[in-house]
Amino acid sequence: TIRLANSAPVINGKKRYAVNSVSFVPADTPLKLADYYNIQGVFSLGSMPDNPTGSGGYLQTSVMAADFRAFFEVVFENSEDTVQSWHIDGHIFFVVGMDGGQWSPASRSNYNLRDGISRCTVQVYPRSWTALYMPLDNVGMWNVRSENWARQYLGQQFYLRVYSPANSLRDEYPIPKNALLCGRASGRKTRPF
């Protein structure tokens, strides 16, 4: 179970938005290139906590690690007075529950496990939570973000790296040989697959 709470902290004297106290900052190299070429220092796996911290916000190039063919229960929590809208790239998920107040493990007893709605974007109402089940059936580096552009731009997002030890075209295509490389990946040659 992963619980994700949005917040609006002030970091270094500036208003930011965060997920589990982490306000995302873009890296100098696209994360997919850094992952593909194993470039150290661009991001670190596990830099995104899987539960709300309850502390003030901080800046980080946040990436959560996950295994291919795993299954997540994700609970979006919203303690603010506005509707939050969340999108997960590369995956579909099934909305199984939502309610006002605070989510707890006992909330599962009211989940809809018969005909959950398949989505890639979901809303979380003010002072409420929304739960979803998500099969991790797509290898890669995927963005989880607020659909409110200002919140996304100011840090309310992170990346989910779904990893498979198999280096197979069945799971993920390689970066094209004619891809333009930038950041710390500049000057590297594409790897043979």
Automatic annotation (TrEMBL):
Pfam families: Cu-oxidase_2 (PF07731). Residues 28-165 form the Plastocyanin-like domain. InterPro entries: Cu-oxidase_C (IPR011706), Cu-oxidase_fam (IPR045087), Cupredoxin (IPR008972). It comes from the Eukaryota. One of its GO terms (molecular function) is oxidoreductase activity. PANTHER family: MULTI-COPPER OXIDASE, OS07G0510900 PROTEIN. Belongs to the multicopper oxidase family. This is L-ascorbate oxidase homolog. It comes from Coffea canephora.
